[in-house]
Write a structure and sequence with these properties.
The structure holds two protein chains of two kinds. Chain A is α/β, with parallel strands linked by helices. Chain A is built from ten helices and twelve strands. Classes of the chains: A alpha/beta, B alpha/beta.
């Protein structure tokens, strides 16, 4: 069953006017994206800065209201929820952020930090709360004595465990993980990633996993969504997508990921230029100015997401009826005309 | 002074800058940098008995977690340590001269000219109040006494060589008018402006997006090839090492626990820490498997355990590891390891060359 179903989800921000007025711009941070997060599964979102992945996370968390489209939570539209329904939703969807040094209050003891969501949301006796806190600490692999300490007494990895324990306090259905390991030491990252996978298996949690590290996303996710300038360019099964990317942007992105071994040799596609401003995205396919395969039609017509061999891809290269693979062009070669 | 400057502004290797082939460009021997508290009561051994070598044109990766001493090592090489830090022992032979013995004034002529550094955050390395042209031209004006107009002309060419589009207009702009990738390329241009022999890059791409990171790493590699630069990459990212480096030094708690050629270490790590680190990274190909995590936490440098600092987290530690710190062992193929296991039967005897108790 789907925990979250987003359809045509859109978030436009109005850009501030300059001191002398003038045209008011619209930042199309998220522009009509659709995705599903199934129960007990992980949806990974990848893309570079400005692609809209953090805005997507905020929309799912209910921290921003969409300007278009719908989010269904267990089949019910979020927009139509009353106060009680909204409350239940906020309890069911929790978050773990990147920096455990910023996300934990330094003046609160660990048991107060973890118990805070319990106290504000449920009427529980003090002993019951304490029992839940100790259980949660045990779940994330921290000793019971951690409850009486302050955050500064813990290392980065342990703090992230505390943040995870707090997110688990209300037995949520979905946890939004926004770069959960990138602030941690390399030798600690595997501990946290393993813990998240164990908790998912044990508690049947769903994750929305956002990270720059493509190997970590591929490792954690069942499905991956690739975003570019507010649009989904490709989505599908995590392992097949990582192994055989179809959209030229996905291909370039995964080829830019660092190798895990010095003997690993692969075709490297170096994209020219940088991500354009979402204030003024390119016409047609938003990726066409940087695309090594761009054709004249790419600048005019926006490609729609289409089912290509069990995957969704938005690219004119697959417009032909047979859906054959595009001709590979090495980096630096002239674009196809 | 001006006659020492190549008359053409071309940035082909001039010949005069090429090193004489007389051994390594930089040789660090038994170097220790400690942070000492005001009363002298607390000593943090940030860099402890480190020996390293880098040849001209080579790329050395120094890998470690936060607190492993890798950044202090870079600051030591450049002699820009904070007041509490002391170089307590060792030598740093750069082009045959010991940098530890140089006066501050002598170091000023080496820093930015013979050895340059690129830092992690380009916005912190650039002055927001000066134009890009001024900042790229500054090292040439200071170190080579070039006239402003000449320095600016060379600045434009440098911007072109780091692939900044329309350098003519960019030189008159300020850092806030550039994207993150462009700023980092400008910092790179400043780094190579006086044709240094050694460039130290401390986490140069952590603030960049993936496709921009790939552009930047390729640019660094091209610059290195064109100019015969030696590069030291300081990073926590083994992927960067796999992509860019020839030689690798792994640091843990202030010490180099293993060093040698990158592909040798990746294929057959000797130190259990290196091995565990390599096994703990997620790989694109095998996402089904559980990661092999390293249990425990990195140690507190002010309160190191007796013996090997990694012993409390090491799956192969035995009694001796907890009592006595292993010496650095020199092995074949420029490899070293600081582990009792390396001196026992687990290493084929033909790999052993000599043992040094440095």
């Amino acid at each position: 069953m789907a925990v979250i179903e987003a359809a045509g989800l859109t978030k436009h921000f109005l850009a501030r006017r300059g001191i002398f007025g003038g045209e008011r711009g619209v930042v199309r941070a998220v522009d009509g994206i659709s995705f599903t997060i199934e129960a007990g599964r992980t949806l990974g979102v990848v893309g570079e800065s400005g692609c809209g992945k953090t805005t997507t996370a905020k929309l799912v968390l209910g921290l921003e209201d969409p300007t278009g489209g719908t989010i269904l939570f267990e089949g019910r539209d979020l927009q139509g929820l009353d106060t009680a329904g909204r409350r239940l939703y906020r309890r069911s969807v929790q978050a773990v952020f990147q920096d455990p040094y910023a996300s934990l209050n330094p003046r609160m003891r660990v048991d107060t930090i973890i118990a805070e969501p319990l106290v504000t949301n449920q009427a529980l006796a003090a002993t019951e709360v304490r029992g839940r806190v100790l259980h949660l600490l045990d779940l994330v692999g921290l000793p019971a004595r951690a409850a009486d300490l302050f955050p500064h007494e813990f290392s980065g990895g342990q703090r992230q465990r505390i943040a995870i324990a707090r997110a688990l306090a209300l037995s949520p259905k979905l946890i939004v993980l926004d770069e959960p390991v990138s602030a941690l030491d390399v030798s600690i990252r595997a501990q946290i990633l393993n813990l998240l996978r164990d908790l998912q298996a044990e508690l049947g949690l769903s994750y929305l996993f956002i990270a720059h590290d493509l190997a970590a996303v591929a490792h954690m996710s069942h499905t991956i969504v690739v975003m570019y300038l507010g649009k989904i360019v490709e989505s599908g099964d995590a392992r097949t997508l990582a192994r055989t990317p179809k959209h030229p942007y996905t291909e370039a992105l995964f080829s830019a990921a660092l190798p895990s071994h010095p003997d690993e040799r692969r075709e490297e596609i170096i994209l020219s230029g940088e991500v354009p401003s979402p204030l003024n995205p390119p016409s047609g396919c938003r990726f066409h100015p940087r695309c090594p395969h761009a054709m004249p039609s790419c600048a005019e017509q926006e490609p729609a997401l289409a089912d290509i061999e069990g995957r969704l891809v938005a690219c004119h290269l697959y417009d032909t009826d047979e859906h054959r693979a595009p001709i590979r062009i090495a980096a630096g070669a002239s674009p196809v005309s | 002074m001006s006659n020492s400057i190549p008359s053409s502004a071309s940035y082909e290797p001039t010949g005069q800058g090429l090193p004489v082939k007389t051994g390594p460009l930089l040789e660090i021997e038994n170097l220790s940098t400690h942070y000492i508290s005001a009363g002298g009561t607390r000593v943090v051994r940030a860099v402890d008995q480190v020996s390293l070598r880098i040849n001209a044109g080579e790329t050395l990766g120094i890998v470690g977690e936060s607190g492993s001493g890798k950044s202090t090592l870079a600051l030591t090489i450049l002699r820009v340590l904070p007041p509490a830090a002391r170089i307590v022992e060792g030598r740093m032979l750069f082009e045959g001269q010991d940098l530890v013995q140089k006066s501050d004034n002598e170091m000023r002529h080496i820093r930015g000219k013979r050895i340059a550094m690129i830092l992690q955050d380009p916005m912190a390395s650039l002055n927001p109040l000066f134009t890009i042209g001024d900042q790229v031209a500054e090292p040439m004006r200071v170190h080579e006494g070039v006239a402003r107009a000449t320095a600016w002309r060379r600045a434009r060419e440098l911007l072109k060589s780091v692939r900044i589009p329309s350098p003519e207009t960019r030189v008159t702009q300020y850092p806030h008018e550039m994207s993150g990738g462009m700023r980092q390329r400008i910092v790179g241009a400043i780094g190579i402006s006086c044709e240094p022999r050694l460039l130290i890059a401390d986490e140069p791409t952590t603030s960049l997006d993936l496709t921009i990171q790939a552009q930047y790493l390729n640019l660094l590699r091209e610059l290195q090839r064109e100019r015969g630069l030696a590069l030291i990459f300081i990073t926590h990212n083994l992927g960067i090492v796999a992509k860019m480096c020839d030689q690798l030094a792994v640091m843990y708690a202030g010490r180099v626990v293993e060093s040698g050629p990158v592909s040798r270490i990746f294929n057959a790590p000797i130190h259990p820490y290196t091995e565990a680190l390599l096994n703990s990274i997620p790989r694109m190909s095998d996402s089904a498997q559980r990661l092999t995590a390293i249990e425990g936490q990195p140690p507190d440098l002010a309160a190191l355990p007796p013996g090997c600092a990694f012993a409390p987290r090491c799956v192969r530690a035995f009694d001796r590891c907890r009592v006595e710190a292993p010496p650095e062992l020199g092995l074949r193929e420029r490899r070293t390891a600081r582990c009792w296991l390396a001196s026992s039967d687990s290493i084929p005897s033909d790999m052993l060359v000599q043992s040094s108790t440095a």
